[in-house]
Every structure is written in C-alpha cells, then in structure tokens.
Design goal:
Blueprint lengths: L2 H14 L2 E6 L1 H5 L25 H6 L1 H17 L4 H12 L2 E6 L5 H5 L4 E3 L2 E8 L5 E3 L16 E5 L10 H10 L3 E5 L11 H7 L3 E5 L12 E3 L3 H11 L1
Parallel strand pairs: 1-2, 1-7, 2-3, 7-8, 8-9
Antiparallel strand pairs: 4-5, 4-6
Length: 243
Amino acid sequence: MSFQAQARAVADRLRTATRAAALSGAGMSVESGLPTFRSGSRALWRNRDPMTLATPEAFARDPALVWEWYRERLRAHGAATPNPGHLALAELERRIATFTLITQNVDGLHLRAGSRDVIELHGDVRTSRCASCATRVPTPLDGELPPRCACGGPLRPNVVWFGEPLPPGAYERAWEAAAGSEVFIVAGTSAVVFPAAGLVQVAREAGAFVVEINPDETPATSSCDVSMRAASGAFLPLVVELL
C-alpha cells in the first residue's frame, strides 16, 4: 500500500473515532533537532555517557555535574520548536472528541504545539522539585549548582531517572487512555522502554486500530495494524489533511 493510501486508511479510521490516543517517543524530538542521548553523534557529553548521569546515584554523587548537563539540555530545548508532527497531533486533539497524548519526552514540545491533554510519563525539565521537601518550582537556568529550594534543600530536575517510578497516577491515566481508544497512534518511540511500551499491547487487546510511525522497525511493529517507515512530521500532517 502506498504512502498516500496508508495515510488515507488511518484518516478514515480517525474520521469516525470519538476516542483516540497517541504515544510519542524520542523520535519526535529528534525531528525537532533534539537527538536522543541513547545514540547518535551526540551520544557522549564531555566524554561521559549521559545515561550514567540520569540516575539518582549520579545526582547524589555529583549534583553540580548532573545540573550542568541538564542546563545544556534545557538551552537546547528552548531553541527547538515543535515540528509538523507535533502540530498534527495537536490538530487531532481539536478534531476528535476525546484525544489523549501520552509522551515519553520531557521537552514540552507537545504543549508548545498546542496539545492540552498531555500525560508526561517521564516528567518534564521545565520544573524542578526539592529533594528534601518535594516542592516544585520553575527550573532555574542560572545561578548556583545545585540550585536550592527556599527550605535549603537541593533542587533536582523533575524527570524520571533510570530506576525511579513514574509520577503518581501517570501510568494509570495512560493505561485508561490506551484501553479506551478506538485508534492508538505510536509515533517515534523505540518501544523498548517499559512500562510505556506496554501500552501498545493494552490498546491492541482492547480492540484499537494501532498505527505506528517510525523510520525503523520496532518490537511493536508486529502488533500494529499500520506500520509506516516514515517520520511523524511527514506522515501525520498528511493524515490530518485527509480527514
């Protein structure tokens, strides 16, 4: 089936749907110029593997170093803009009665694109929380490292690090959205990070029409009704155009 025909098939399903959901991953951020720190030419930061910095242990050992890395990421996020894929998902939310966007990304690009019903499974870098009293504040972009809360405790990025649980209630809301969807879109995710990757099967078992958009095949591909080897920013705008 051609690119156009696949897009039309997805649009036909969305046109009659009253409940839909989407799961987005790092691939969508890559399209906005924010490569994942898991791979690629920017996989190293100052000769360090960033994956070793995104842990509670790294923060306890050297909070200033962890903050230096996050501040660089924040500046990159601020310079990035939502791409056509982000904008298309925001448009789907406006056109479908119930549309929930579940994202593994922490950059806030979906919100900047206009999406409102967004579940940020892995937190966000726009805010920080106190390691002592759990107060949340806007992330400071300069000043001492680590930044301090009014109580004197150290602030940490409000993101889910490796080995940490998801924010309270986030997965439960995501599960309900996936299980209740008639169409479930999987955009730019490697489908290897759980529990987020498990939402594909949740939607499938609940009878949803599952659509994957990814330049590469993933472990979720075999569970999808449509699997497009394409960028979200190329495929999703066409789907919206055909609605």
